[in-house]
Amino acid sequence: MKVLHVVSSLNMGGAEQFVVDISAAMNQRPSVQADILSFGCSDDTLCQRCADQGITIHHVNQTSRLQQFLQLRRLLKRFDAVHIHSSHCLFSILLASLFQRDSRLYYTRHNTVVHRSFKWRLIYRLASIRLSNIVFIADIARQDFLRTYPAFQAKSILIYNGIQQVEAPRPDRTNNSVIRLGQVGRFVPLKAQKLLIQALAQLTADQRQAFEVHFFGDGPLLDDCRRQAEPLQQDMSVTFHGLEMDKSRIYQTIDVLVVTSETEGLSLVMLEALSAGCLVIATDVGGNAEIVEHQKSGLLFLYPDANQLSCLLQQLLADNHWHALVKAGEQRFHRIFEQTTCIKSYLALYA
Questions:
Q1: What is the DSSP pairing of strand 81-84 with strand 299-301?
Q2: Does 114 lie in the same domain as 20?
Q3: Confidence of residue 169 (pLDDT cuts 50, 70, 90)
Q4: Model-level pTM greater than 0.70?
Q5: What is the CATH number of the domain that holds 17?
Q6: In the listed set 158, 188, 206, which residue is the last one of a domain according to the structure?
Q7: Which of 50, 68, 190, 322 lies 20 to 30 A from 182 at CA?
Q8: Which residue range(s) make up the domain with 131?
Q9: Higher-confidence residue: 12 or 36?
C-alpha cells in the first residue's frame, strides 16, 4: 500500500511532527510505503529528520498555480491513499483529485476550530463528495464539527493520535523535595505561558521555594515571558532552555507538565509527558479532557484562571496523591494513545 501524507509545511509543529513520526513507523511495515507531500519549503525544520529516517518528501511546485495543479494530479495517481493533515492544503488536493476515481482521500482535523465562512462551506461541500473519511483526533472536535456540517456524519471517524513512548529514565530524587514544573511549546499567545508565571506569583515565597520551573521552546513572546518571570527568581529557579529536540532530555528534567493553552486539538506534549511518567496539569479545553481525567489521571483547570492553577500547585504541596495520578496517566497512555494503536486504525481505514 502506498500512502501520501499531505502537510502545509514541515516546520516544527504538533501535527507536522506527528506526520513525520507516523510516516517513519508505517515505513517499517513491509507492505506499506508512506511519503510526505509538503506545501512548504525544502529547508523546513523537519526536512532533515525526514531525510535521516528515509522518508521521501515531495515538494509542491510554487512557480505557478497551473503547474502546481498538474503536478498534484500526476502525484495523486501514484498512491492508494492520500491523507490530508492540514486545512490549508485541503482545497488544492480536492481540486486536483477531481475525476480521479482511483484517488482515495482522507482528511484528519488536528484542531478543534470549525470554519463557518461561505468559502469554507463551499470547500466542505466539495469535500463531502470527494473524501472517503474525515478523521477527528478528539470527540469534542467531532461533535462541534458535525453541528455545523451534519452531512459528514456517516464519513466521520474518531482516531486518537498516538506516539511512541518517551523513554526518560529519572535520577534518584528521594532526598530532593523540589517539584520540577515544565512547559513545552512555542512562545505564542495561544500557549499562554504567562498563566503559569501568574499562578506561581500568587504563591507565598516559602511555597515557591518548593518548585522550580523549566520552559522549553522559542517564539515571539519568549522575551516577554523572561521579563515576567524575573521576580520569581528571587525565591525559585526558573530556566529557559530554548528549543530542545531531545524529548528524553526534556522529560528527565521535569516532574509535572503544565499546559496553559487557550485551545488544543489533541496535545502531543501531554501524550509525551504521560508516557514519560510525568503528571499533567492542563487547561480544560479542546481534547485535553480526553487525554487526562481530572483527579483520576491528571489535573485540569479552566482557561484562563491563574488562581485555579495556583490552587492546584498548592495541592501538590499538601499531599502525595499526585504520584497515584502519574501511574494512572501512564496506564491510560498505554491503553489508548500508543502509536501502534493509531497506525493500525489508519491502515484499517485505508484498506
A1: unpaired
A2: yes
A3: confident
A4: yes
A5: 3.40.50.2000
A6: 158
A7: 50
A8: 2-158
A9: 36
